[in-house]
């Protein structure tokens, strides 16, 4: 099995729909390899809000499980995961908080970086482990009447990723470290709120 094929299987999360599909690129000592990552995610927001009103959007990643072994390749761990959620147009940022999450072997954190709320998980998450990323709740203030506020995931290209992580896999006597950069493709709106 090629390194590319093993990475595809390693990062295919066993999660139900709805599913966000990320286009990913792994940089390894054997070169760059593209792969797909599927992450179940739910999102909630009010259907309507008044102008200049505070409200909350919630992005809830679904549980996942990493394999321990993929046709001779051993996944040792995944660490330093970073997931970005942009602050929607026609709104302004007030605050963000995380709830839940399990199997992460570290305490997740969230902070505002530019125009995105960023979930960070140091890990490591071991191969074979079940885990769940925390739910992100972002408090926003609505903009002017007649606009629409859409929740989306961040990322437009491998050079502008919305999801990054570090992986470590072992093949025979070789340990391979592979930074992975991903962006959602396609990237439909997860929620839509009308300001009226």
Written overview of the protein:
Strands 1, 2, 4, 6, 7, 8, 9, 10, 11, 13, 15 and 16 form a 12-stranded antiparallel β-sheet that branches. The chain has a 3-stranded mixed β-sheet with strand order 3-17-14, with no helix packed on it. A hairpin with a 2-residue loop joins strand 15 (163-171) and strand 16 (174-184). It is mainly beta. It is elongated and about 60 Å long. Helix content is 4%, strand content 58%. It has 1 helix and 17 strands.
Class inferred from helices and paired strands: mainly beta
Largest beta sheet, briefly?
12 strands, antiparallel
Question: What percent of the residues sit in helical stretches (DSSP H or I)?
Answer: under 10%
Name the overall outline. Answer: elongated
Rounded average pLDDT: 87
Please provide the count of β strands: 17
Low-confidence stretches: 1-17
Radius of gyration: 18 Å
Protein traits:
17 strands, 3-stranded mixed β-sheet, 58% strand, single chain, 196 residues, 1 helix
Write the layout of secondary structure elements.
Layout: H1 3-10, E1 19-28, E2 31-44, E3 48-49, E4 54-61, E5 64-65, E6 69-70, E7 73-86, E8 91-99, E9 109-113, E10 116-121, E11 125-126, E12 130-131, E13 135-142, E14 148-151, E15 163-171, E16 174-184, E17 191-195
Parallel strand pairs: 3-17
Antiparallel strand pairs: 1-2, 1-16, 2-4, 4-13, 5-12, 6-7, 7-10, 7-11, 7-15, 8-13, 9-10, 14-17, 15-16
Brief rundown of the structure:
The protein is mostly beta strands and 196 residues long. The protein has one helix spanning 3-10; strands spanning 19-28, 31-44, 48-49, 54-61, 64-65, 69-70, 73-86, 91-99, 109-113, 116-121, 125-126, 130-131, 135-142, 148-151, 163-171, 174-184, 191-195. The model is unreliable at 1-17 (pLDDT under 50).
